[in-house]
Amino acid sequence: MQSFKFNPIYVKFTRIYNFIFALGLVLLCSPLMFVIYMLILFLDGRPIFYYGARLGKNRKTFEMYKFRTLRIGSEKAIGGRLMLDDDGYITPLGHFLRRLKLDELPQLFNILRGDMNFVGPRPVRPSMAAEYSKIIGNYEKRFFVKPGLTGLAQLRGGYYCAPEKKTRYDLFYIRKRGILLDLKLLFLTAYRAVMCPNCLKSGDRPVGAIKVVGKQQVNMTPRLVPEKITITECCRK
Q1: pLDDT digit of tens for each residue in the chain (237 aa)?
Q2: Is 161:153 a contact under the CB 8 Å cutoff?
Q3: CA 124: distance to chain centroid?
Q4: Which residues, in sequence order, are CB contacts of 159 under 8 Å at separation 6+?
Q5: Hey, where are the domains in the chain?
């Protein structure tokens, strides 16, 4: 059984530095966000933003914000499955924004609201969480903490990483989390976003035995994370 210890000092400090850091980035990135806003408006039209229901800490539902990168009506057609870059649903501008993760900038306001932290498990749709809880052991423990803008699973596994493997990374982070690990993951995220954007989208595409959960493809034969794994190993790609 996995044990999770929560340091109240770390939890309070995390909220403070997340708020201050997010507020600073909002002010710093305001000109960039305005440019992106205008580009979407003129090239793709309204709506400018995407609002999606996600589960946060203790399964509390909140609206996650993103710049819209999909063609209008695409989300209904995609459903809950994993979307590939060549599906044809992403706009040309959307490809650029996604490549540099600029579509995620509005989530700074989610951090200011207290819905999210900078580092943590990525927020998931309620429908996907309901299905994954049935087939992935200890999946519900990822809701012990606030979801994050980035996380160990995204850095080590990538977008196409199997849900089982992502959960292993998420639970590893929850057990080991601390200010130094958070800072390291934030640094690696910024570095890869600039120097190697595709690294953030690498990982396991669906291969081997596939099970369809709802409309989501789930890889049932992923390469598993070792039982004992160091923080350095997890952060290395």
Answers
A1: 455 667 788 888 999 999 999 999 999 999 999 999 999 999 999 999 999 999 999 999 999 999 999 998 777 666 655 666 556 889 999 999 998 889 999 999 999 999 999 999 999 999 999 999 999 999 999 999 999 999 999 888 877 788 999 999 999 999 999 999 999 999 998 888 777 766 655 544 433 333 434 444 444 333 333 344 444 444 444
A2: yes
A3: 8
A4: 82, 200, 201, 202, 203
A5: 8-235
Integer angstrom CA distances of residue 55 from 140, 147, 179 = 11, 8, 24
Q: Could you tell me the CA-to-CA distances from 73 to 90, 92, 99, 102, 142 in Å, in that order?
A: 11, 16, 22, 21, 31
Q: Which of 104, 134, 123, 132 is nearest to 59 (CA)?
A: 123
The Cα–Cα gap between 93 and 70 comes to 9
Neighbours of 224 (CB within 10 A): 10
**C-beta of residue 189 within 8 angstroms of C-beta of residue 150:** yes
List the structure tokens of 60: 């509390």
pTM exceeding 0.85? no
Rounded Cα distance between 85 and 63, Å, is: 24
Which amino acid appears at position 106 of this protein?
Answer: P
On whether the CB atoms of residues 44 and 93 are closer than 8 A, the answer is yes
Helix then strand count (H, E) for the chain reads 9, 6
Please report, for residues 87, 89, 90, 229, the alpha-carbon distance to residue 84 in angstroms, rounded to integers and kept in the order given.
5, 9, 9, 30
* Distance separating alpha carbons of residues 36 and 34, to the nearest angstrom: 5
